[in-house]
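During the reporting period the student researcher (J.K.) took over the structure-prediction task from the postdoctoral fellow and processed the backlog of single-chain submissions. One of the processed entries is reproduced below for the supervisory committee.
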Amino acid sequence: MRKKDKSPAFQFYPGDWLRSLRVTMMTHEEQGIYIRLLCHCWLNGSIPEDTKQLRALVGGRCKTKSIEKVKEMFQKSESTVNSMLHNRLIEEKIKQEQYNEKQ
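J.K. obtained the following structure tokens:
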């Protein structure tokens, strides 16, 4: 069950997604893996660094090569062992927290 203080959604900017050369160079499989991992990262605060665990998160039928390529979009967490974060999601979470404080 989700904590009350966690936002259930993050802003998704289609223009940024479609203009990103890194995303454009991904296969459709890699793009699907990427968006699923972004969702897991948002909901859980991070994703595991382990490729086998990531495969389980995205459904288990994806190529190891695809997982490894998408992992490059995330950064190792300095505060949590064996986990990865996404800088843009961190920025979005901060924006939401600031907005909520103003309300």
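The committee noted the following: The helical segments are 14-19, 21-24, 28-44, 51-58, 64-71, 87-102.
J.K. will present the remaining backlog at the next meeting.
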